[in-house]
From TrEMBL:
Its cofactor is FAD. Keywords: FAD, Flavoprotein. Residues 189-336 form the RsdA/BaiN/AoA(So)-like insert domain. This is NAD(P)/FAD-dependent oxidoreductase. Residues 6-389 form the RsdA/BaiN/AoA(So)-like Rossmann fold-like domain. The keyword Cell inner membrane does not apply. InterPro entries: BaiN-like, BaiN-like_dom_sf, FAD/NAD-bd_sf, RsdA/BaiN/AoA(So)-like_dom, RsdA/BaiN/AoA(So)_Rossmann. It holds the Pfam family HI0933_like_1st. It comes from Novosphingobium mangrovi.
Length: 391
């Protein structure tokens, strides 16, 4: 015997729970399944435990996808303000940090509790702790076996995310299921992830723990935020951002002194000819970093004794210091997964598979990846809303 529903949603994360809430409040009977013991596990660890639940500056061009236009429809129909209205309706205090990032004042638990309360309003059944054993499609719809039970529904939503942070139980299940039904998958890769450096950058590894604001560039993409040196390479918001655009073999350039006007070193030489480069750098950068850069530039002695040409060369190198990462820290440390279920097989309006009626894919499982800072949560809410309105 199967329990019968209007929709079965696989994945009790941000996208899955929100989709369930939207569909249930439209009168749909919804079952949410997740192999984890509790719903919303990734939500709970996000934003340092305070959940960076959206970004007020959300724009479609701040998402990566093989189809750069795909996210526009869903994002336009459910906005950051729409989600913020729900947060405020539940009395959750919030604050804006840098660059439009919105966080709970209290805890990420408040967002999970809000989603579960909303699901309860619509009598959503949330079942955790059993892995999906099989999914089959017939004329009647989809039959899902899990644990000792099975359920049937005309609509099935894939909301199981990507393989980033496997210690939280993340897997590539969404891709296997998509392929089962003939959908293509864009090669998944770690995104918003620290980059590693080869052994010849050992000097910078000695700077582990040092952070400073930089402009980091890869190709035509640049971000101005903090970079952090680690014992394995580079991290911090600027590096996580650029990692989504980085491909193996690419050079990453860092401007260690963003905002400095051209010729600033020669100006320093004229104003203070007896000061050393190490001293000048130390006035603008963390001491250990200033020392390391001065050693790499190999310009010793007073500025007054250095040629203008040498200072111009040093200035140019400080503004575009090259690093060639030898990899990243992988899915284990990636905040999200780039790639995923190919949007070419999905409707941008409803998230339904074009050639498989009743099958939907939302959230991180899909080839849509946002910037750091609440963008991926907004995609979860928006794509979940789009599917929830359709099923």
């Amino acid at each position: 015997m199967s329990d019968t529903y209007d929709a079965i949603i696989l994945g009790a994360g941000a996208a899955g729970l929100f989709c369930a809430r939207v569909a249930a409040l439209r009168g749909r009977r919804v079952l949410v399944l997740d192999h984890a013991e509790k719903p919303g596990k990734k939500i709970l660890i996000s934003g340092g435990g305070r959940c960076n639940f959206t970004n007020i500056d959300t724009l479609p061009e701040r998402y990566l996808s093989n189809n750069k236009h795909f996210a526009k429809s869903a994002l336009s129909r459910f906005t950051p303000r729409d989600f913020l209205d729900l947060v405020e309706a539940h009395g959750i205090a919030w604050h804006e940090k840098t660059l439009g990032q919105l966080f709970c004042d209290g805890s990420a638990k408040q967002i999970v509790e809000m989603l579960l309360e909303e699901c309860a309003r619509g009598d959503v059944t949330v079942h955790c702790g059993d892995a999906v054993a099989s999914v089959e499609r017939s004329d009647e719809g989809y039959t899902v076996r899990y644990g000792a039970a099975q359920a049937q529904a005309p609509s099935l939503v894939i909301a199981t995310g990507g393989p980033s942070i496997p210690k939280m139980g993340a897997t590539g299940f969404a891709y296997d299921l998509a392929r089962q039904f003939g959908l293509k998958v864009v090669q998944p890769r770690p995104a918003l992830v620290p980059l590693t450096l080869p052994a010849d950058e050992a000097l910078f590894r000695e700077l582990s723990g040092v952070a400073t604001e930089v402009v980091v560039t890869c190709g035509k993409t640049a971000f101005r935020e903090a970079a952090l040196f680690t014992h394995r390479g580079l991290s911090g918001p600027a590096i996580l951002q650029i990692s989504s655009y980085w491909q193996r073999g690419d050079t990453v350039h860092i401007d260690f002194l963003p905002g400095q006007e051209s010729g600033w070193l020669k100006a320093a030489k004229r104003a203070r000819p007896r000061v050393a480069l190490r001293k000048v750098l130390g006035e603008a950068l963390p001491d250990r970093l200033a020392q390391a850069l001065a050693e790499r530039l190999a310009l010793t002695g007073e500025l007054g004794n250095l040629s203008d040409k040498a200072l111009d060369t040093a200035e140019a190198q400080l503004a575009r210091w090259p690093f060639v990462p030898d990899g990243s820290e992988g899915f284990a440390k990636a905040e999200v997964t780039a790639g995923g279920i190919d949007t070419a097989g999905l409707s941008s309006k409803t998230m339904e598979a074009r050639k498989v009626p009743g099958l939907y894919a939302i959230g991180e499982a899909v080839d849509v990846t946002g910037w750091l800072g609440g963008y991926n949560f907004q995609w979860a809410w928006a794509s979940g809303f789009a599917a929830g309105e359709a099923i």
